[in-house]
């Protein structure tokens, strides 16, 4: 009912409501600002729900077991905050498993109370203007972009003055920004105008996925095997155990969305454009031709999963009409679990292209409108020089799949990331958690 009322409400009334609500919450901040700061209270926030970098850091901090009070402020409906929304039973298990994390709705008076009295804040979006930071509070800004393709903040064109003012306000609050590369360090300086501390930790939300990658897995298995006390266990046993755990997790993810774990999985995740016909190249995507090409190239049957951007769904887009049976996973709670389970990614302008390719798995770009999109949005890189196979139509995409060369793909990607100074090794959450611990308990 609330969302329906918001849709039919005139824009002027919406603006009046937002301003009034902001003033009320600002007054609450002033009121709660007289209460003592709880030195062991850490508040994580993500307006999109329970996920992204704050989720990964919260779980890493929780595992350290230092007696902290962990609060997670999340947007969206309550039932969307905790687990797999397509399986209520699984969602209930997720709530029980996270009983030591307190969940609070974003924009509520309770959220204001916890923010006003916390020692540490962690966020991946902007704090609105009514949020008042107190002396003695520490703010970690993780951002939600990882390695950006599209220009952001002050580097982008067409952003409203109101948005840029809010962005500037949030930047002024931050004590540390998390980064994954020398390139992102520079972006934070000129796009955000940030002059403070930057910690090159890597991207926490990618940790679980990267720990499953071949290079990372070998390093961890060898380390674990070398430390074994039993003379009867060797590195091969450790590798088998790690592989078994990886396969078990993939199986669980795929069973949640009703896919046979024996099938290959291709995830198609197009970027949101602007609504209506411009919300994505869905009509131009021939899923049947692409799935057939994947089967020929990789020697097994593939299932096509489609995840639309939440804004595309809100503009009435759907995943039908692709010429093949699909699994619409648009409502799945965590895209990084889907990326973890997928064998192949197809996208266009999403930074998931970089994140997925860190694992060594193949990513293809389907971008029939790349010239127009680059002109309208602006990009940090020349699109045609990205280290991925690029196609402008479905036939070209199918041809690119058939011609896929894993060695060439890996070499191009590694060279690209090396030039940008990228650091991603699956330990970002631990590094971020240690920063928080050092702020609360002092450096040891």
Descriptive overview:
- Helix content is 45%, strand content 14%.
- The protein is an alpha/beta fold and 444 residues long.
- It has two domains: 208 residues, 3-Layer(aba) Sandwich (Rossmann fold); 168 residues, Rossmann fold (3-Layer(aba) Sandwich), CATH 3.40.50.
- A seven-stranded parallel sheet has the order 3-2-1-4-5-6-7, with helices on both faces. Strands 10-9-8-11-12-13 form a six-stranded parallel sheet, with helices on both faces.
- Strand 5, helix 6 and strand 6 form a beta-alpha-beta unit.
- Helix 2 packs parallel to helix 5, helix 3 crosses helix 18 and helix 9 packs across helix 10.
- The relative contact order is 0.12.
